[in-house]
Amino acid sequence: MNLISAPTVITAHVNADFDALAAMVAASKLYPGAVLIFPGSQEKNLRNFFIQSTTYLFNFKNFKEIDPDSVELLVVVDTRQRSRLSHVAPLLDRENIRIHNYDHHPDSEEDIAAEKTVYKPWGSCTAIIVHEMMEKKADLNEEEATVMGLGIFEDTGSFTFNSTTPHDFTAAAWLRERGMDLDVITDLISRELTVQQITILNDLIQSAQSHDINGVSVVVAEMSSEEFVPDFALLAHKLVDMENIRILFALGRMSDRIHLVARSRSDDVDVGAICSHFGGGGHAFAASATIKDRTLAEVRDDLFALLYSQINPHRLARDFMSSPAMTIPGAAPMRQAMEMMTRFGIQAVPVTPTNDEPGCLGILEHKTADKAISHGLDDVPVEVYMQRGVTCVDLNAGLYQVMDIILGQKQRLAPVLDQGRVVGVVTRTDLVNILISEPARIPDALAPDKRRERNIKNLMRNRLPVALLDLLHRAGDLGRELGVEVYAVGGFVRDILLATPNSDLDLVVEGDGVAFAKKLADRMGGRAKPHQKFKTSVVVLEDGQRVDVATARLEYYEYPAALPTVELSSIKMDLYRRDFTINALAVHLNPDKFGNLVDFFGAQRDIKERILRVLHSLSFVEDPTRILRAVRFEQRFGFTIGGQSLRLIKNALALKIFDRLSGSRIFNELRLILQEASPLACLRRLKQLGVMAAIHPLLKLDAAREKILDEVELVYNGYKLLFHEYNLEPWKLYMLGLTHGLNIQKLERIFERLNLSKREQREMTDLRRHIFQASHDLGRWRSTKGRISRLYFILEPVPLEGVLYLMARSKDDKLRKSISLFLTQLKAQQLDIRGEDLLAMDIPPGPAYTRILREVHAAKLDGLARTREAQLEMARRLYKEIDLGHKSESET
Questions:
Q1: Distance of alpha carbon 334 from alpha carbon 356, whole angstroms
Q2: In 386-490, where does DSSP find H-type helix?
Q3: Rounded to whole angstroms, how far apart are CA atoms 2 and 23?
Q4: How is the beta sheet containing 413-418 ordered, strand by strand?
Q5: Which pLDDT tens digit goes with each residue over 113-148?
Q6: Is it true that the peptide bond before 230 is cis, omega within 30 degrees of 0?
Q7: What residues have CB less than 8 Å from 456, skipping those under 6 apart?
Q8: Residues with Cβ < 8 Å from 871, sequence gap 6 or more?
Q9: How far, in Å, CA of 536 to CA of 555, rounded?
Q10: CA dist., res. 189 & res. 185, Å (int)
Q11: Residue 314 gets which letter from DSSP?
């Protein structure tokens, strides 16, 4: 495509409104020949208007159509913020670019530097440029006057917004004299609402709540939709007019984004400054923003924090911190920290350098110290299990900055530093005390047990099989009837978000899970198998679907690596006992809340960032199998084990925690790893972490074993591509490679450590014996250039895992091809005759059947008896030879 030369370019901000479009058209009258770059809009009517009318009336182009090196002058209208000009970022980065700017929004920290800046705090940007046109006595036609008038009418709310100035009226009057069509403007500004928009407007009205923040009434309204709602700004404007609202913040969750539209008729709140924090913009009376990668609750919390900060901006950390601060040296034993926190009734304490140097190493929470003590880690230094990477503030930090740390970053407390030393702390309680005068405006993150929820029922409908979705609905219906809350939890929910098929369904009931499971089984024609000790039950349905049902519980480990003791608790406590944040998810199934996703621990953020994190610092000490699970999930999903979790793994290994773990539990996790899509990647990661040696020194992954396992993975993956159905246990195949080179005595030591059952030990031993014998026989067969049938009878007794291992281990390409021939062709070839055919030929049953059928089978494989007739004829001949032989022996 030939790029267009464009010495002068005019553009506006992303998500442009009518004022931005009109200002660009107006600027083109001041800069004749300029190319207009329209950045796009989310307003449906604006987009349609632009497509249908403006594209052929004015010289609009896409940025990709122009030659950026040809641009000498960039004219920016209706914004000065760099973040809102991402579509022309390559031009902004050029040193020799000249910039002219026209804007009516207030200054911001990210304003671009311009050769010429025309700023006036008027109701619309278009009015500013129109006044310059008036001075220059510029000519314009009716279409141009109408487009410009549309911008002024839209941004001044048809001259009803407080931001409207006499200059806006003057500009509109001048445009009216030049043919501005008010009928067109009326059609576009005062448009009818669709059924969907009326529904959304009703949601906004129903959800609208007024919050008295330091004497200023602020209304916040919310809505949610799985699809984009056009003209959301119009709905917010309608709400302001209908309810006579002075300050409105309308939050709309649409698909994976949060849209914020703000309107203000008061000088108390600058909505432009608020929206700029979210990456948006506007002016003091009207602004908007589009926020990605945040939940509705998180945006709401941030919004409230900003309002508190703006309306009461002079509160500093020094005014509301708790001081003096109690601290603990990093080298102090856990016992000492626990005694101090218990004595003074505090939930967390800053950890400082041992040598009395300035700084804050981290935070130790009371619950972490308590668990460490219960596991006999009294003398471990607190710095081993403290929370690292904490954010500190200085004495002059503002309220919002502190709230962002505690609410946004979920940090237990914010240490306050003076010249690098901890002089105070701000806790969640301190924040509550600040805001307690108006409980309604306390952010959700400060409210006890507030659940982070978004609805994913549409996601469930799109990603789950119909039968499984119906099962979830029926479980929720039963929960409603019994008066209990029912959730799907764990990996099942995680995989819905990851779009990964998973039919392993786990339900948690805030009530009697065992009783619920029995009723569910009765209702669906299945059977329930209860486990009273753990208050769990397994429901097996007629179609084979298994449903694990648990009572909401908190697992407490009596000593490191023990099985859990179970106590009743809430869904939050049940999720907290999970291994990783990505598995600490729940989705509500009761009809009135169906699809509500519950995320207390930031799982959605970790899934997005592809990070694997444990929920507390003693997680790997309590259950070392989580180390194996961490590696399995890391490699399966392409995640990365978080830095803090990685350090905790190393600490647990240093405590030799695997020595106290039963072989059965290790083997169960190891077997799951060896059944993953890429077991070798997991094994390499385990080797890197030192886990394999911790399980057993003989399981080290040396170069020879890695090479064999590489081949094993290639052979196995190739086999799976050819055969979709097969009777094979992958863990046996990989275990062969993992124990390559070990004699039977060493192998038995590994079996003993992993506590393999007698049957599993026997099967592995027999498998190795089959492989040894077949390897020997194949060598002889290759050297004597034996028949194909001989290859078949050598490999036929060997279990499939052994055949694949032989192929992987072989360095002889011709032998590998022969084994491949057995797998792809010979193995499936069946005789066309059977014992019944021999009986019909009056051949008496006996050992002769085995000999005859084997020799006929060999002849078919060798191409000597391809048809049924040829095989029957050969069977008769063989029987005669056998019969004659018997007679000859008897005569002798």
A1: 18
A2: 399-403, 428-435, 457-463, 466-482
A3: 28
A4: 393-394, 413-418, 421-427
A5: 899 999 998 989 999 999 999 999 998 888 889 989
A6: no
A7: 496, 497, 587, 595, 597
A8: 831, 832, 833, 856, 859, 860, 865
A9: 13
A10: 6
A11: T
pLDDT at 40: 67
CA-atom Rg of the chain in angstroms? 37
Strand partners, 528: 539
Best-predicted range by mean pLDDT (445-449, 534-538, 704-708): 704-708
Least confident of 297-311, 350-364, 589-603: 297-311
Using the predicted structure, report yes or no on whether residue 51 has a pLDDT greater than 50. Answer: no
Q: Report d(CA 12, CA 24) in Å as an integer.
A: 7
Over residues 183-222, the pLDDT tens digits come to 888 877 765 666 677 788 888 988 898 887 766 889 999 9
Whether pLDDT at 626 is above 60: yes
Beta bridge partners of 587: 488, 597
Quote the CA–CA distance of 262 and 247 in Å, as a whole number.
8
CB of 169 closer than 8 Å to CB of 129: no
Question: What tokens were used for 125?
Answer: 């940007």
User: Nearest CA to 509 among 553, 450, 467?
Assistant: 553
What is the phi/psi pair of residue 286, to 5°? -150, 130
Return the exposure string of 151-177: e unless at least 16 CB atoms fall within 10 Å of the residue's CB, then b. Answer: bbbbbbbeeebbbbbebbeebbebbee
Contact between 607 and 497 (Cβ < 8 Å)? yes
Q: 629: part of which helix (H) or strand (E)?
A: helix 625-637
Q: What gap in Å lies between CA 278 and CA 305, rounded to an integer?
A: 12
| Cα gap 363→341, rounded to integer Å | 12
Give me the half-sphere count of Cα atoms (radius 13 Å) on the Cβ side of residue 692.
17
% of the chain beyond a pLDDT of 70: 90
Query: Which pLDDT does position 56 carry in this prediction?
Result: 52
* Residue 733 region by backbone torsions, left for phi larger than 0, else alpha for psi between -120 and 50, else beta: alpha
| Model-wide pTM > 0.70 | no
DSSP state of 283: -
CA angle 66, 69, 72 (to 5 degrees): 95
Q: From CA 229, how far away is CA 358, in angstroms rounded?
A: 53
CA end-to-end span of the chain: 98
Residue type, 227: E
CB atoms within 10 A of CB 204: 23
Cα-based angle 423, 344, 390 (whole degrees, multiple of 5):
45
Single-letter code of the amino acid located at 585: L
Distance of CA 439 to the CA centre of its chain: 33
- Helices then strands, counting H and E runs in the chain, come out as 40, 30
